[in-house]
Amino acid sequence: MKKTVLSMLMLAFSATGWAQHATINGKFIKEPTSTVNTSQIYLFKADNGGYVPTAMIPLTRHDHSFQVQLADSDLNVIRYIGFEDEIYPVYMRKGDTLTLNGGLGEIAYSGMVNTENKVFADWNKMVTPLRKYSYTKEGFKQSYNHYAPTLDSLIKPVEKFVNNIKTGNAKFDSDVKILLTYSFRDDALGPFAEGLGYSKRDQYPAFIADLLKTENFSNPQIWTLPFGYSYIQTIVFVKHYIYNSENGFLEDIIATEITDPKMRADYMLTLLERGEYQHMAAFVKNNKQYMVTNEQKKKMKIFEKTANLREPGGEAIDFAYPDMNGKVHHLKDYRGKVVLVDLWATWCKPCLAEQPALETLEKSLEGKNVVFISISIDTDKDKWKNMVEEKKLSGLHLYSNNQGSMMGDYEVREIPRFILIDKNGKMVSYNAIRPSDPKLKELIESKI
C-alpha cells in the first residue's frame, strides 16, 4: 500500500513538473533536397530580417516524429518551427501542449490549441492552396492558369481574416497582423522565385502587378519578420528581372528600392554578411553612404577593411601566430620583404601534394628578398610539429589552432590557400595561384 501511494505521489509530482513546461510534438515531412537536412527541424526566432535557431529538434527515422520542450525564453512570443526553408509560427505559454503535423506547404495544429495558435491554424488552412505552389513538386509544375485563380480567390478572405484578428492579446494581435499580411505577399511571390512567369506583363495577376509597383519598403516592421530579407530580395528580383525583363546585378539595384533608411542599411549589411555580391569592394564603396546608426557605420568599416584587403594594392591586415618554440611572429615583422603565406594542415592531401613544389620554389628564391610563411590550421599541435620536423620542411612554420586573423580577416574557409603580399604590406593576390604553377614564381620575382 505504501509503495502504491509513493508511486502515485511521484507520478503526481512528475506531472506537475511537466505541466510547468510547454511542449510541442508531432511529425514533419519534407521531400529530400541537397541543401536541407530532412532528418531534423528547428525552433527559430526572428532576428535581423531573418531567423536564427533556438533549438535543434531531431526527427525519428521511421515516422519523422518529434517532441520538444520549450525554454522559458521561447514562451509568450511568436516563434517558428520547421525546416530551414519552410517554417510555421507558434505561440506557446507555460503548460501548453501542442501537436503539429506539417511539411510540404501545410500544417495541422491540434491538442491544446490556445487562442493564438488557433489564429495560425486557421490561417494556414486557408492559405495552403497557395503555399503548395512553392513547397511541392506538384506545385512547381502547375501553370499560371492555375496559380492566378488560386491567388485571386484568397485576396478578400485574407484581408477579412487579418482585420478580424482579436485574441485579447494586444501585442500578439498587433504583431500577427503585420506577420500575416506580409506572409501572404511572400507566399504569393514564391512561385515566381521558383520559375513561374508570364510572357506579357498584362497577364500578371493584378495583386502581383500592384505589389511590384507600390512596395517601397517604407515599413520598418518588415525587418522584424523572419522572411524580411528574402521578401525584399524576392520583390526586387521579380520586379526587375521577371516583370520588367531587365539585366544587371541585384546588388546594384536594391539600394534605391528601400526607402526606410535604417532598414536599407541593415539589408546592405546582411547582404555582405551572407556574401551575396559580385564585387565586394565596389559594393562597399557604393553603399557605405547608406549607413545610419553608429553601429551600422562600425560594421561597414569592418567590411570595408576586408574588401580592401581582397583588392590588389589593398592594405594587408596584420596577423600573429607562434612558431614551434612559442615565439610569436607578426606579418609586420617582415615589412620590406615579399611574403608568401601558405595555409595548410597535416590532414589536407592537396596541401601535402603542393609541398614538394613549395620546397622547390623556396630553394629557387633562397637569398632573395622574400619570406615563406606556412600557417597550419591543425588543432592537433603535436601532429603538426612532428610532420614539420620529420619532413624537415623549410620556411617559417606557424601554428594557428584554426583561430585568429586568418580565419576571421582573411576568411580562410578552404585549403590549400596561398596569399601574396608585397614589400610594403600591400596585397598582391588574396587567393594566389599554387606553387605547382610556374606563374607564381614569376609573380613573386616581379615584386622583389
TrEMBL record:
PROSITE patterns: THIOREDOXIN_2
Keyword Transcription regulation: no
Domain Thioredoxin: 310-448
GO biological process: one example: cytochrome complex assembly
Isomerase found in the keyword field: yes
Highest taxon in the source lineage: Bacteria
Name used for this protein in its record: Thiol-disulfide isomerase or thioredoxin
Protein location: Cell envelope
First-listed, main subcellular location of the protein, grouped into a coarse class: other
GO CC entries: cell envelope
Molecular functions (GO terms): antioxidant activity; isomerase activity; oxidoreductase activity
Keywords: Cytochrome c-type biogenesis, Disulfide bond, Isomerase, Redox-active center, Signal
Transmembrane segments: none
Signal peptide, first to last residue: 1-21
